[in-house]
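WARN  no MSA supplied for this record, continuing single-sequence
INFO  ligand: T4K
INFO  echoing inputs
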Amino acid sequence: MKTKRAIEDLAVFGGQPAFQKQLFVGRPNIGSRGSFLKRVNAMLDQRWLTNNGPYVQEFERTLAELLDVRHFVAVCNGTVALELAIRALELKGEVILPSFTFIATAHALQWHDITPVFCDIDPSTHSIDPQCLEALITSRTTGILGVHLWGRACPVEALSEISRRHGLKLVFDAAHAFACSYRGRMIGGFGDAEAFSFHATKFFNTFEGGGIATNDDELAQRLRLMRNFGFAGYDKVVSLGTNGKMNEICAAMGLTELESMNEFIAHNYRNYRQYLKEFESLPSISMLRYDETEKCNYQYVVVEIDDKTSLVSRDELAEILCSENVIARRYFYPGCHLMAPYRERSIASGVTLPETERLAHRVLVLPTGTAVGADEISQICHIIRFVLGRDTELRKRIDEQTRFRQSNSPMSPDE
Ligand code: T4K
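INFO  complex generated
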């Protein structure tokens, strides 16, 4: 391990970076190459590349069983999974969702001319706050789109109860929550439908890919039509549709990844436990915990930097880590309601989501996955402990540097 003893040892102040190669959040987990290539060869021999081929069908059957749902409809990515679910459920007008999510959750609605109405979160869970939600329901509201952030279920019972009482559809964005459970039931079976992403950066990937899980037979039928241009037979179109199909090579990847999925989870779990232990006695950082009685993919190592106890901000820590080649990510900053094209509307209508905005300034996601092991985590945590332990000294140094930069800038007010 490259020990940092003095401030000058930090790469940001001219020291040697701790890592030669960059460490990323969301480096793909890769299953058995042999197994994947065997499937690819068989696919090429059969000359069946897409359009509900044998791998897609096997993938769908396996996933429906794994998630304990009647139907799993595989599609080309998680955004299209959301869009198809939204269309097939005939959502319109306004749909309520958390702002603290990946922008695709909001875009999937807006793309279909549905207004995303952003709701604040509960800071203790990072998930949509049901108490704020109810006040946002209007005569135009047709649905609720909950997000199982970080693979932890959002408040499923409360959302189900509210949606039932107001006659609203309930969809979940389960992009983070493949192979996770809630109260012993696999995520996938809640609400009217749940949409998954199998993007390369997810713990389980099909390069690009996604799918919708549902127990509703009619909905599944509509989804299957819609993902294939509305074709009900060779030349019979019965509904509006798009091209949302998953192709055979992606399904082959998915089937291969399933063989190693438990190893990926075990690796992520070891990483998660190590991070927890390393941060145990560091008061200015708090790490998101998973309920270990549930199934979980442990894909996200999420920390919050407490600006009341640390003189170094989240963004400064991220910059310091980046110089060391640790590409930690601040997720969902500044919150979807403050991103284009929603920002202007939020500002004009006075939407403020204090908890979302506060969290978006505190959260940092650290590298994990099979590309990251115990030595890397020790080194990352050493740097973080060093930075937060020397925050007074660092604050002085950063402020001096900022003043120096400002006084040498051609735009400097001193000139
Ligand atoms: N809902 C939620 C809650 C989501 O999180 C997402 C997707 C969706 C819906 C939509 O699902 P998809 O339509 O994407 O299936 C990434 C992903 O593109 C996105 O899938 C994901 N969420 C989101 C949270 O993160 P970026 O902007 O972080 O991607 P990028 O290119 O910066 O990649 C992250 C890091 O991963 C890079 O620094 C390098 C590394 N990487 C990436 C790729 C693609 C690799 O090492 N190899 C790779 O192949 O968005």
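The two ends are 45 Å apart (CA to CA).
INFO  checksum written, moving to next record
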